[in-house]
Amino acid sequence: MKVLKVLAQQAFSLGAQELQLQAWGGTAGRLYSVGLDLAALDTRIVVKLPITDAGVEAAGLLRSQGVRLTLTGVYTAHQAFTAMAAKADYAAPYLGRMNDAGKNGRGEIVSMQQMIDAMGSSMRLLVASVRSPEDIVALASRGCDTFTISPQCADQLFGEPMTWQAAQQFERDAASLGAS
Q1: Could you read off the pLDDT of 75-114 as tens digits, one per residue?
Q2: In whole angstroms, what is the distance from residue 138 CA to residue 135 CA?
Q3: Residue 178, by phi and psi: left (phi above 0), alpha (psi -120 to 50) or beta?
Q4: Which residues make Cβ contacts (< 8 Å) with residue 39, sequence separation at least 6?
Q5: Could you say which residues form the signal peptide (predicted)?
């Protein structure tokens, strides 16, 4: 826990608004105990739990203590429904892994978001395993607003060649007008 406390302090000092930390332990009791310890590190911690029987049971116990929760490892819309029923703040589907398994990841996540919207739930999807800016755009256009992305995907967000060409042309134009 000491290492995680230092990590949390560093994240918050860099401007993070919240930090998601996953609990561990094979039983509901252990997940609950670790989840309480994680939540005690800082009020901005969101405890992640797997969407297993033990994870959902621990979620109910933690929720009764006011702990903010993410149910993770979500691969189907019915699991997102379960996360909503457990009053999770977030459900975390793994887009890339869904696609790797031959599923239509985007389609399944859109179904999840439509269900959340239709039911008026405040739960948000934390879309993980995102591998391209196109995935972000496709899902954002359908209401998803929270993503975890790799450094490579982040680089792609700024890697549009036409943008770089336009910026370089602006700098040349400014220099030709005497800007320094």
Answers
A1: 999 999 999 999 999 999 999 999 999 999 999 999 999 9
A2: 5
A3: left
A4: 45, 47, 62, 65, 67, 68
A5: none
What is the number of domains present in the chain? 1
* Runs of H (alpha helix) within the chain: 2-13, 28-39, 53-63, 77-85, 95-100, 105-118, 133-140, 151-157, 161-176
Q: What is the CATH number of the domain that holds 170?
A: 3.20.20.70
Asked if residues 58 and 28 have their Cβ atoms less than 8 Å apart, the reply is yes
Whether 2 is catalytic is: no
Residue 9 burial (CB count, 10 A) = 13
User: Residue 65 in contact with residue 33, Cβ under 8 Å?
Assistant: no
Q: What is the pLDDT of residue 153?
A: 92
Q: Which of 142, 131, 145, 128 is nearest to 72 (CA)?
A: 128
**Residue of 5, 48, 87, 103 with catalytic role:** 48
Query: First and final CA of the chain: distance in angstroms?
Result: 51
d(CA 180, CA 172): 11
* Owning domain of residue 55: 2-176
pTM of structure: 0.89
